[in-house]
């Protein structure tokens, strides 16, 4: 049947396809214009990164260096199927369950995570810092890395809430009753010293069934993906902290690729700018593993003490290929 | 890019543009949206062209098209229009008074994800794994979607039309 289906469709299309304006020359012209525009806006860096990211992902050069272990096998992952969701409603995650837990599974992830960030620090010539206080006025207190202060990969729980009113900053929420476990570590930074950029690194492993593939457009001012997507993007947008205030532009560069085992890989670079300059950049790579789980690795600019560059650097310390390398290194353990 | 690369890209557009436009139309049911999506996808492809491998270029481009159409649907949703994350289910219903229900019209009546699976598997002739990659789901889900898609298509065709795609006389 199916061969005849294709032939029958082709026959019908031959009769009903309207004329097209598609032209290779016109598209080449548009492509050149788009490239020039992006280079003009971001000093050439962003377009360069986008092309390099796309190139690296598409050309099968990844993972780098041949040091990455094989991707996790097809282990039986506990399934957390999403509840029925209203397509017209917004959803957000909030932490639940209180205490961070260290389990055998998180210990296995932690071992790979330590190896990964230690290698990344060595490669980039950066010093490692750890955040020791989430409740600090600046949202974090960074100190030089030490075993005593290091915060390991932990198991946490997230609950899914539906937005039923309020504002994007202060939404009214309704619990859906859907709760998932996930593994997370993010209190780590690479710094090249005073006056230089620092990059916060994080890793997250999401359980099977608990996310939509692809990027979720943020619901408003906070640049967070709409749940249950693992990463925000990919339509550029503008937000204001309050009506009448200066706008902030959020620029996404999303690139799809494939891992060595055929896994889907999504890389999203986010740059936030106000009227005068770009002031934040982050790069997120999501590896959608064949066992149904997802690994999210992020490099996000952070400033603390004297670790502040005069202007926003052109790229994160680790590029998409390197972040994918880290994601691939995370072992396949049950996420439950 | 070099003139040689540009020429290669133009050759690709000439060879595959029409097929991509039909693919986009089957996903969204609107020729204008289909053409816009393909044009945007090809501009993005052009930017990545020097690094694209010939063996994967079609799959890569189809994926961009699908992502663009999904993003567009999502954007419309935020504008309070009633659309879904997936291509619309019923963008073009077959005319009940028409003597013959076309296959394309019948396809456009089945839910978007089922339709995409049928189109990718049986019109684009992709493997289960390739289809899963484009749709962002598991191989098992693709098999399930394809089976349900064909069943849904069967329900919307007359015996004569169904026999035509089966390759046998009714």
UniProtKB/TrEMBL annotation, chain A:
<keyword id="KW-0812">Transmembrane</keyword>
<keyword id="KW-1133">Transmembrane helix</keyword>
<protein>
    <submittedName>
        <fullName>Uncharacterized protein</fullName>
    </submittedName>
</protein>
<keyword id="KW-0472">Membrane</keyword>
<feature type="transmembrane region" description="Helical">
    <location>
        <begin position="40"/>
        <end position="62"/>
    </location>
</feature>
Automatic annotation (TrEMBL), chain B:
<dbReference type="InterPro" id="IPR007627">
    <property type="entry name" value="RNA_pol_sigma70_r2"/>
</dbReference>
<dbReference type="Pfam" id="PF04542">
    <property type="entry name" value="Sigma70_r2"/>
</dbReference>
<dbReference type="InterPro" id="IPR014325">
    <property type="entry name" value="RNA_pol_sigma-E_actinobac"/>
</dbReference>
<dbReference type="InterPro" id="IPR013249">
    <property type="entry name" value="RNA_pol_sigma70_r4_t2"/>
</dbReference>
<keyword id="KW-0238">DNA-binding</keyword>
<feature type="domain" description="RNA polymerase sigma-70 region 2">
    <location>
        <begin position="17"/>
        <end position="77"/>
    </location>
</feature>
<keyword id="KW-0804">Transcription</keyword>
<dbReference type="GO" id="GO:0006352">
    <property type="term" value="P:DNA-templated transcription initiation"/>
</dbReference>
<protein>
    <submittedName>
        <fullName>RNA polymerase sigma-70 factor (Sigma-E family)</fullName>
    </submittedName>
</protein>
<keyword id="KW-0731">Sigma factor</keyword>
<comment type="similarity">
    <text>Belongs to the sigma-70 factor family. ECF subfamily.</text>
</comment>
<dbReference type="GO" id="GO:0003677">
    <property type="term" value="F:DNA binding"/>
</dbReference>
<dbReference type="GO" id="GO:0016987">
    <property type="term" value="F:sigma factor activity"/>
</dbReference>
<dbReference type="Pfam" id="PF08281">
    <property type="entry name" value="Sigma70_r4_2"/>
</dbReference>
<keyword id="KW-0805">Transcription regulation</keyword>
<dbReference type="InterPro" id="IPR039425">
    <property type="entry name" value="RNA_pol_sigma-70-like"/>
</dbReference>
<dbReference type="InterPro" id="IPR013324">
    <property type="entry name" value="RNA_pol_sigma_r3/r4-like"/>
</dbReference>
<feature type="domain" description="RNA polymerase sigma factor 70 region 4 type 2">
    <location>
        <begin position="103"/>
        <end position="153"/>
    </location>
</feature>
<dbReference type="InterPro" id="IPR036388">
    <property type="entry name" value="WH-like_DNA-bd_sf"/>
</dbReference>
<dbReference type="InterPro" id="IPR013325">
    <property type="entry name" value="RNA_pol_sigma_r2"/>
</dbReference>
<dbReference type="InterPro" id="IPR014284">
    <property type="entry name" value="RNA_pol_sigma-70_dom"/>
</dbReference>
């Amino acid at each position: 049947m199916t061969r005849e289906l294709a032939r029958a469709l082709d026959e019908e299309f031959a009769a009903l396809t309207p004329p097209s304006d598609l032209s290779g020359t016109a598209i080449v012209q548009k492509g050149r214009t788009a490239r020039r525009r992006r280079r003009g806006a971001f000093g050439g860096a962003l377009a360069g990164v986008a092309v390099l990211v796309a190139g690296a992902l598409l050309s099968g050069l990844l993972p780098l260096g041949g040091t990455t272990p094989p991707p996790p096998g097809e282990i039986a992952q506990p399934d957390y199927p999403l509840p029925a969701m209203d397509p017209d409603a917004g959803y957000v995650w909030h932490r639940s369950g209180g205490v961070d837990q260290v389990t055998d599974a998180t210990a296995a992830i932690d071992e790979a995570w330590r190896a990964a960030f230690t290698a990344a620090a060595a490669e980039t010539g950066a010093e490692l810092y750890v955040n020791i206080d989430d409740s600090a006025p600046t949202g974090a207190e960074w100190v030089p890395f030490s075993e005593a202060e290091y915060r390991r990969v932990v198991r946490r729980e997230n609950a899914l809430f539906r937005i039923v009113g309020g504002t994007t900053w202060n939404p009214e929420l309704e619990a859906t009753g859907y709760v998932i476990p996930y593994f997370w570590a993010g209190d780590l930074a690479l710094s090249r010293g005073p006056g230089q950029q620092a990059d916060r690194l994080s890793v997250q492993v999401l359980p099977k069934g608990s996310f939509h593939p692809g990027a979720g457009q943020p619901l408003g001012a906070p640049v967070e993906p709409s749940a249950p997507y693992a990463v925000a993007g990919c339509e550029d947008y503008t937000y204001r902290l309050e009506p009448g205030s200066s706008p902030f532009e959020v620029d996404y560069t999303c690139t799809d690729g494939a891992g060595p085992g055929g896994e889907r890989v999504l890389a999203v670079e986010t740059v936030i700018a106000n009227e005068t300059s770009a002031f934040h950049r982050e790069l997120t790579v999501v590896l959608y593993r064949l066992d149904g789980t997802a690994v999210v690795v992020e490099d996000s600019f952070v400033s603390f003490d004297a670790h502040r560059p005069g202007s926003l650097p052109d790229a994160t310390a680790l590029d998409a290929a390197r972040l994918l390398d880290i994601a691939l290194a995370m072992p396949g353990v049950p996420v439950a | 890019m070099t003139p040689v690369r540009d020429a290669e890209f133009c050759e690709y557009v000439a060879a595959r543009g029409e097929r991509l436009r039909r693919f986009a139309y089957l996903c969204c049911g609107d020729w204008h949206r289909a053409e816009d999506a393909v044009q945007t996808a090809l501009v993005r492809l052009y930017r990545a062209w020097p690094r694209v491998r010939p063996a994967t270029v079609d799959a890569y481009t189809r994926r961009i098209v699908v992502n663009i159409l999904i993003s567009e649907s999502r954007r419309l949703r935020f504008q309070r229009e009633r659309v879904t994350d997936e291509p619309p289910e019923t963008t073009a219903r077959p005319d009940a008074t028409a003597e013959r229900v076309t296959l394309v019209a019948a396809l456009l009546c089945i839910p978007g994800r089922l339709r995409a699976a049928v189109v990718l598997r049986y019109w684009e002739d992709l493997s289960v794994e390739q289809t899963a990659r484009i749709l962002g789901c598991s191989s098992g889900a693709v098999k399930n979607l394809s089976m349900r898609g064909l069943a849904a298509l069967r329900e919307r065709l007359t015996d004569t039309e169904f026999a035509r795609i089966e390759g046998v006389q009714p």
